[in-house]
Design goal:
Elements (H helix, E strand, L loop, with lengths): L1 E3 L2 E3 L4 E3 L8 H9 L4 E3 L3 E2 H5 L3 H5 L10 E6 L3 H14 L3 E6 L4 H4 L11 H14 L4 E6 L9 H10 L4 E5 L13 H9 L7 E4 L5 H11 L3 E4 L9 H11 L8 H19 L1 H6 L2 H7 L7 H7 L5 H15 L11
Parallel strand pairs: 3-4, 3-11, 4-6, 5-6, 6-7, 7-8, 8-9, 9-10, 10-11
Antiparallel strand pairs: 1-2
Helix pairs in contact: 1-11, 4-6, 7-8, 9-10, 11-15
């Protein structure tokens, strides 16, 4: 059991990773219902936040049923980060999280996200300033290093702890790797096993099944696991992992009806929250996982990722459910 600020967690909690255009309120609601213990918003650009940009401000929306929740920000300019921290505090999350892990070029070229891994001293100074600028517990999400030659995460984690962060989530890749290759959890374990470390260490990267979650828990000893891409279109991953941790047995996969119901609700709430155009577009990345494994599903999926008309999308999902309702093969397909 561990704490982040005043938040108490049970043994081996599961966190939802902050993901742009994914970890929004409609999706977070589904993940929370399936057992996610702690969630983060999409990451928010501090420059947009302090300029009151609509898209950035909207990402501050949080709801009581989501708690505990962290709001994640990214930026590179100290004054802007401090001003953004004050805005985040007013929004009332349990945690303020700093993104030092985003590998996208347009972020890192400004020395934000994983870009700051090229300058650990700056990273520490910036973190120290943010910790001092807010009353919220500050956490950090980062990577092993900029490239294979700069995997200084053990030292950096220690230094960030020393300036006051309350937990660190580590993605087991460098920025250069982006999302390619396998995540290296051995360095995450080195951070956790460093005798000077006393804050929680959360592991992230490649956990996509209950078996792997338990394997990594036992092998690397992290305090919690953060799930990212494996949750897209699959909020049930949280309940499946929790059940396996508790019982050692795998849950049956969600039924087709559960999947269709969740996807329709997800689409409806996305449209409600983001507007029709964005709500439709940003749902597209979820459909593949919602309906993965269905024989011949491509004919339905192609319609789901091309139509811009909500009524048509709901009709396609209803047709899909009816089409596969009596497929005997589905009894043995892990959807």
């Amino acid at each position: 059991m561990f704490k982040i600020g005043d938040i108490e967690f049970g043994d081996f909690p599961l966190f939802l990773a902050p993901m742009e255009d994914v970890s929004d309120p409609p999706f977070r609601a589904l993940c929370k219902e399936q057992g996610c213990d702690m969630m983060y918003t999409e990451f928010i650009a501090v420059e947009g936040l302090i300029r009151d940009a609509e898209k950035s401000v909207q990402k501050l929306d949080i709801y009581d049923e989501e708690r505990p929740i962290g709001i994640q920000i990214f930026g590179a300019e100290l004054t802007s980060m401090q001003r953004a921290a004050a805005i985040v505090e007013e929004a009332g999350p349990e945690v303020l999280d700093i993104n030092y892990g985003c590998p996208v070029k347009k972020v890192v070229c400004k020395m934000a996200g994983a870009g700051i891994l090229q300058d650990p001293d700056r990273m520490v100074r910036l973190t120290d300033a943010i910790v001092k600028a807010t009353n919220l517990p500050v956490t950090v999400k980062t990577r092993l290093g900029w490239n294979d030659q700069t995997k200084h995460i053990v030292e950096i984690s220690e230094r960030l702890q020393d300036v006051g962060i309350k937990a660190i989530a580590i993605h087991g890749r460098t920025r250069k790797q982006m999302y390619k290759g396998e995540a290296d959890w051995s360095l995450i374990a080195e951070v956790k096993n460093n005798p000077r470390m006393h804050i929680p260490v959360i592991g992230n990267g490649d956990v996509d099944s209950p078996q792997k979650a338990v394997e990594y828990k036992n092998r690397y000893g992290v305090d919690a696991i953060m799930i990212g891409r494996a949750s897209i279109g699959n909020p049930w991953v949280f309940r499946e992992i929790k059940h396996y941790v508790k019982t050692g047995k795998l849950l049956p996969p969600p039924t087709l009806q559960e999947k269709v119901t969740a996807a329709k609700r997800h689409l409806a709430t996305s449209i409600e929250w983001k507007g029709e155009k964005l709500g439709v577009l940003e749902m597209r990345r979820h459909y593949t996982n919602y309906f993965r494994g269905l024989p011949g599903v491509k004919m339905f999926r192609s319609r789901l990722v091309t139509s811009m008309v909500p009524s048509e999308l709901f009709e396609v999902m209803e047709e899909l459910e009816e089409h596969y309702r009596h497929y005997p093969e589905l009894e043995t397909v892990a959807l």
